[in-house]
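User: two proteins, same treatment. go.

Assistant:
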Amino acid sequence: MIENPFLLMSAPVAFETTNFQIAATPPTNLTNDNMDMEWRSVGLADVYVVMRCAAPVDTIAILHSNQRATDTYRVRAAATVAALLTNPVYDSGLVPAYEGLKLEPYTTKSILDLGQPVQSLYWRFDFDSPGHPDGQVKAARIVMGQRFEIPTGINYGWEKLVLNDSAITTGPNYEDVDEYPSRPGVKSTLGGMDEATFNRLDALLMQAGSAKPVLYAPEPDNLDTAQHWTVYGRMKSWKFPNPYHNWWDVEVEVHGLRS
């Protein structure tokens, strides 16, 4: 389990192959950041996707799936598609989709710590959800890469945000609502960084800017809240106060794309 708060900007990920796919909800949807464009499996038997990612990977997140706590997934990596089954360089074994508490309307965020960086072109994801009432596995995004852990932790007083884009039109004696689902956000200060740590985080945030989403887990080791507080979305503001020489605070606000 990852104990420290972390940020992860995904390395480039591409879809390679699967057994069956639905034209309207293909596995390529797992590579884009439109959270309404899900991948959906054909049934529940032998559900897998193979992705390509050439970058070093120490963290994988399968985001906004419908897997339950009793469901499992498995991740394997290899130099060829065939070797994923015969000679993988990494094999997670069966992993619970999540542990701890998750309440509606939050969706499952499966976060896998590989323990050390693994670099291999092909990655296979198997999903086991026996008897799932939806009759299929659904997920919105696979994020892979090397995370940035914040060794000094997150400062007290951070904020959990509720964001809602519903449009409300009011008039005499009425309100008309164009309703959209709420999304989570996090606003926090990551304090007390030495300059070497700050320089690496600064470079990551400069790469992401406001255009590229990041996965932000403020308390990944808190199983009662990790499913609710972990967000994947774009940064809306960031500041770098320098209270002392060679000592930095980082203020970030990330708005999730989906709950």
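Protein 2:
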Amino acid sequence: MDAGWTHHGKVRAREHEGAIEVVVDGLTTQTRYYKPLIYEFFRKAWRGGRPAWGEFSVEIVMDYVGDPPWMDLDNLAKALLDAIKGYVFHDDAQVARLLVERRAGERERISIRVRRLGDGPDRAA
């Protein structure tokens, strides 16, 4: 499972099947916590692809254990998009499709999957 992942603290990422996947272990209701954490990862550890132009699909999943955290998903999405801007895409205005969901899971974490839209199956969604 660890193949191809780059780790730095609580954040890990990889390029896989045409997408960039970013995972942050643990949860907090303070969405402002995520921006510097992810930014620091990309600045210090990431050696993957450079930001690209075009339209992107972004899927954000917050897995929680127990009661769902009291957090506005729109604020979470904004913090995460700001954190990856400049590393995955140039501007968050390039995001043409955004899915943000909260679900019960086996461990607390946030997963982000970014895929460039083209003529493939993501385009029809």
